[in-house]
Amino acid sequence: MNSDELRKWVHDTTKETVWRDGLDGVHFDGNNIDTGDELTDWWGCSEKKRNQESLAKLFARAYSDKLCYSYELNQWLEYNGKYWAIDLSDGRSALAACINSLIAIITSEDVPEFTGRNVEEQFEKWQKNHDNWLGWMVKQNNALNQNGILTNARSFAYVPLRKFDANQWLLNCNNGTIDLKTGELHDFDPNDRLTNYID
Question: 121: Cβ–Cβ under 8 A, 6 or more apart, which residues?
Answer without folding.
Answer: none
